[in-house]
Design brief:
By secondary structure, this protein is α+β, with helices and mostly antiparallel strands. It is built from 3 helices and 8 strands. The termini are far apart.
Length: 149
Amino acid sequence: MIEKDAITREVESVLAETDKFVVEIKVKAGNRITVLLDSDTSISIDDCIAVTRHIESVFDRETEDYDLIVSSAGIDQPYKLLRQYIKNVGREVEVTLKDGSIFTGKLTSADAEKISVYRKTKVKKVETEETREIPFAEIKQTKEVISFK
């Protein structure tokens, strides 16, 4: 089985000196490898192809066969890294807390310990504004809210 650490080293070497980064690498039974990438700006199909070709040039399929998927971390995927939170400051997010509650609003900041989310609500013609600081220890997952307005 191909080692996750070996793949990680190779992918990071390709992405060095760019604004692209690894979100997650999974190696499952049967050498089913999935590499999820993100960027501070954007990820293109060409970026994914470059990483795929590099991995294929380093790990010979004749020596050890594998399935390989390299893609961008889609907007429907939860954030996994602080860098993703920072990149998405200013966007509408849905934060699911470990206690099962959900807090939706605009991500206003993120640091190593917590995120801040602002929301404005209107109940019976009464507007309220709230900024909530949420420690990462309390977060189960955070996803971007996809709106077609």
